[in-house]
Structure formats: C-alpha cells, structure tokens
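Hi there,

I know you've been waiting on this one. I reran it after we fixed the sequence typo, so this is the corrected version. Both the input and the resulting structure follow.
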Amino acid sequence: MVSLFASSPRGMEPLLADELRQSGARQVRPLTAGVSFVGDFACICRVCLFSRVASRLLLPLGRVPGDDIDAFYQGVYELPWEEHLRADGTLAVDFSGTNGVVRHTRFGAMKVKDAVVDRLRDRSGGIRPRVDFDRPDLRIHARLTEQRGVVDIGIDLSGEALHRRGYRLNGGGAPLKENLAAAILLMAEWPAVARAGGRFLDPMCGSGTLLIEAALMAGDVAPGLTRDHFGFMGWLKHDPAVWNPIRAEARERERAGRGGIPAIFGFDQDAAAVAAAMENVTGAGLSPWISVERRSLEHLERPMGAAGLVAVNPPYGERQGEIEQLIGTYALLGNRLRTRLYGWRGA
C-alpha cells in the first residue's frame, strides 16, 4: 500500500472520491483539485483504467527545498530512484512553478533530471538513464510552490493525462475535456437515466465529447480501455500479473455492457463540427448507438420515443461583443428546451 494523489477539475473532488472508493482506495480525503488516498497496485491499475473524472495519478516521493539550488539538487538526489527506474531506462520531467532561484521551468526540470541521472549512475557503476519525452519509463512530476519555497516530487503513474482517452481524432474548436464532460454527466445522474431506458441528446454537440462519454458510461466501457500505455507500465513496481486480469475484466464488462447503450443524438449547425463529431464517434466504435446530424437550434425537435437527458455545452464568449451576440442564442436554447424537450432532464 502506498500514498497516492489523483488530480481532477476543481469542484469534482467528491465525484472522484466516490470513484476511488470503488477502485479499492482507502483513507480517501478530498482536497483542492484532487483527492489523496492509500492504495495497492491493483488500485493504481483500476484508477487509471476506470476513473472517468481523474486527470492524473501521482505517487508522491518527497518534498525538497526550492529556494536554494544546491539543497534542491541534493534533495532530489537523495530520493530512492533506483526503486522506481532501471539505470538504463528512460525518464522525462514535468516541472511547474518558478521563483527567484528557479526562474524557468526548463531549468527546474533540468536540475531534477540531473539529480536522478547522477544518483542512478553512481549506484550502477556508470550506467545512466536517458531522456524520452514521448513515452518514458518514468515520468517525474515536480511542482514548485513559491510561497512555501518547496518542490513536491512525485511519479506520474498515469503518463499522458487520463482525460486523453484516445478516441478524439478531431478536436474541433475549443473541445470540452473528456473528464469534465464525464463529471457533468455524473452530476446530471446520466447512469440512472440510461438504466431506466432514457436517451441522450446534445443539441450543440461540437466534436461530440458529451455524446461519446455518455455512450461509454451507459455501456460500462472503461474510459482507459482504448489506451495502450499508462505511466505505471515502465515503473519498476509494475506487475503484469495484476494488470492483465484487470484489463481483461474491463474488456468483458465492455462486451456485456455495450448492449445497454441507449439511442444517443447529437446536433450542431456547423458542418465542420458535425464532421469532427462523426469522425470521433467512428473512432470510438460507437456509430451503431450515436447519431450525429447537422441541425440548428431553430429546427430542434424532440426525438421519437422515451425522454431522457439533454446536456449541452453552449458557447460562452470571451469578449463583450461575443456575449451580447449570444443573448439570442441562449434565449432560443431556453425556449427549445421548454417547448420541444419538456419532460427531459437538462444539464
């Protein structure tokens, strides 16, 4: 059992805490923009594979001084890196934060890298790891907090951010992050609506993120199942004998659950958005359940059959002129929800 931290969008910590408990986590404690907990390697695998809300999964290793370069380097050097990375392995460092000593994140990342490489070289008789930014054996997470003058050092067990499911082939303009879309659906109680036979509609679907996340959720498809790599796979404590059965379980749940996906409808007035959504839906293997059509709000009609959940991420504007132009769009959206989708839940 080890202490871990899973990050999430702010405000979604209670949802993430529930997911972690379902994955076998203990001592679950919601914090700001994440949740701390204790778990074993099976829990690590389950969080990376099944969590719909988590952004990253970190294994904290220690806290080192950030206001003195020599102490910073020495603190990183003294951490037991040989327990986590082979001397001939690969690494990458993600560094955030600056202060009067560490004036640039690239400099901070370089100092962390130097300390790790030096320790492994000293303990292996000269063999040293090399840097691989694309898919390292070990991705190191370092965060400098200027107010406290410290750097928190950990291992990123997720590797690429967990919201990157792998199905988004075309992001379109300003796409909604997958884990934020999933959190919205969970808060709107979409799983219960789907189990009761309700259907799903997004009248301004963009590149289709809400549509796809709704289908994956209703079909009990693990969000990480389309990924072929996680950060823990190059970690020295990775255990395939634990990971492989969990992944096999996810595949079996997918086979059993896809039959429960209800009809899902996506509309958008922009042809490019519709093309992007259709490409992503096809890439996710969800074309039999998700219908995407070019249609404006003016022509929004209630789909035939049972009511369900309508969820929408409308444009919000970033400049005053855009906001004024959107007043009519929001008025029309409200009108259509009241008059054409009466009886549906809305998010």
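Quick highlight: The mean pLDDT is 95.

Best,
R. S.
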